[in-house]
Amino acid sequence: MKNSLFVLFVAFICQLGSSQTAIFSGIITDANTKEPLIGATVFLNNQTGTATDIDGSFKIVTTPGDYTFTASYVGYDKQSASITLTERASLVLDIALKPVDGILNTIVVTGSKFEKKLGEETVTIDVIKSDLIQHTNDVKLDQTIQRIPGVSVIDGQANIRGGSGYSYGAGSRVLLLMDDLPILTGDAGFPTWDFIPMENIQQVEIIKGAASALYGSSALNGIINVRTAYPTSEPVTKLSFFSGVYNSPADTAQKWWADDFPFFSGANFAHRQKFGKFDLVTGAYVYTQDSYLKEIYQRRGRYNINTRYRINNNLAVGLNVNAQVNRSSSFFFWDGIDSGLYVAAPGTTAFNQGFKITVDPFLNWYDEHGNRHKILSRYYGNHNKTITTEQSNFNDLFYGEYQYQKHLDKYALVISSGVLASYAMVSAELYGDSTYNTSNEAVYLQLDKKWFDKLNVSGGVRYEFNQIAGLKESRPVFRLGANYQVANYTFIRASWGQGYRFPTIAEKYISTSVTGLSIYPNPDLTSETGWSGEIGVKQGVKISNWQGMIDVSGFISEYDNMMEFTFGYYPFPGFMSLNIGDTRIMGGEISFIGEGKIGTVPTTLIAGYTYIDPKFKDFDSIQNALSSADYNVLKYRFRHTVKFDVESTIKKFRVGVTCNYNSFMEAVDAAFVDPIIPAINLYIIDGLQQYRDEHADGDLVIDIRLAYNINANSEVSLLCNNVLNREYSSRPAMMDAPRNFTLKYSLTL
Prior knowledge:
By secondary structure, the chain is mainly β. It folds into two domains: 20-97, Carboxypeptidase-like, regulatory domain (Immunoglobulin-like, Sandwich), CATH 2.60.40.1120; 104-748, Beta Barrel (Maltoporin, Chain A). It is built from eight helices and 43 strands. The protein has a 22-stranded antiparallel β-barrel. The protein has a five-stranded mixed β-sheet with strand order 11-16-17-14-15. The chain starts with a helix and ends with a strand.
């Protein structure tokens, strides 16, 4: 009897409780695309709230009464309305939020690992949209990022605001990411630009300055994060075909070919589609090139597939795969200035065949409190076989990361944290036919807080553990940044961040030779550390239906024990990675981006000027002896760079112009320009100093593009790169392309 009474009492209490609850639920979508918005917030009376799951769904259980709900999402207008929730009833309301127009409202994720307006970021971030990639027909990502102010690429080495020089294919101070996962090779820590699936890029985000607190080693100078596309409600298929030829160089004495011009051609496709709870993105690419450089060629094919399955409203899993095969040749330096600028010096040509693959399983889960849990993983296999030289290398890298993120909207606070580990196995002739292992583990925490709806403050800390060939090292780093909205479209920011970079296997243990020149190992090479600071102002502008943003910034970076490959005598001529000393790079930058209509003409613009002053902090005669300059300036930097890209659409025609100017590279390795035997004028690289004297005014390269829309689904375009047929070299003894023409056909289904 007592047990029965207790059961009845519990049932009564439960019934009483249920009679005093009400449910508010729905789905939040983009008003234009109808796509669900993941992580949007819904609050009742600015107190009780939740975040939407992977399907854009939300659910709030509360007491009956009158409420005002507020739905919000980064980059979208807020929506508020009054509602009444009744007992034992459920109110279902679907909410469509309108995106906010304007450059400053562009959404980025790299700076904080969550979606944030570009104007509110505490660091300088530049964004490249997919349209620019497609319209310029860039076949490698390094071609695209060079259109951004302050960014240069010297023979594959990314350089942001002078932070890097020419690294001979090993080590990087700029971290390349694809979908938040590192994609640097396990042995050399070097980006492979042709491996990025250009046909499936949504946008590229570039952080300028140290970002090691969130991203670790190799982010000492900045980050390039490639975000691939996800499908929308409607399936999309894109195809393109292109072919082109190289013109004769301006100096016809340098032309090594007869009647048949060197050519290149390629094709790619991309398909994106939703199948219920299953998302599919796939693409493929083929490219062949017979280069303007004698005996140099490229043959590569790539296939990628990205999948995601939504198990329920809170949990999604997926697998991304990207694979590429390639055959190519390359050479180290030219034969001579008289007639061999586009011809390899004897013995410097290498023939390669390779296979690359990334396999990326992932999991994304939102718990009942709206907290995000994310597991990212990657296997990166990079196998290269040299046919004529003993420079083969095989490396496999395994990476795993757990991310936790909590949005405390009531306090305008976001907590981002994570733990990660990576392990690489390397076996290579390139490293003295030896096997090496390297590993890395890290934990990190970042807090992003907003005060008064105007001030954004960000602070982070990271602790890193690194091991290479049994040598262990650990290090903490910190960062702090702030952004204040002075007016409606005016933002000022300041940031400071530490950085570091552990040596790679290639930098410490490489042991090979090229045409009699040795590349020496340096087991005693030590890590470099540093910091960077910046102050800047962003000002939004609007002229009728055209919106833009002016960004003015001053920056400083310092590096201790900077690592650089240096040409010298050890005791015989060759290369070695050295700790060259402490350096300081100061400078300023002004950039302007915009999009919209000028009158009735849709127009986009990217423009900017960057000045750097790269120096040793304590310059001495020993450092001077390694450089061609007799004054304090770091090697392989451009003191002045100017970038300009504009594109307009007039009815069915689209026309674009790109201009890139680099000032004279003031310093290179002294051994490149000094004679080995002065008495007989014997040089390692014939004619390099003469070439530098003749091109001391810097390099101006202009590209133009013209497209015609045949109909809504297809277009044909003609591109001419290096219109002026400028003879120029981005690094010593390696010529860049003469004038070339490309014809392209694009189809959207």
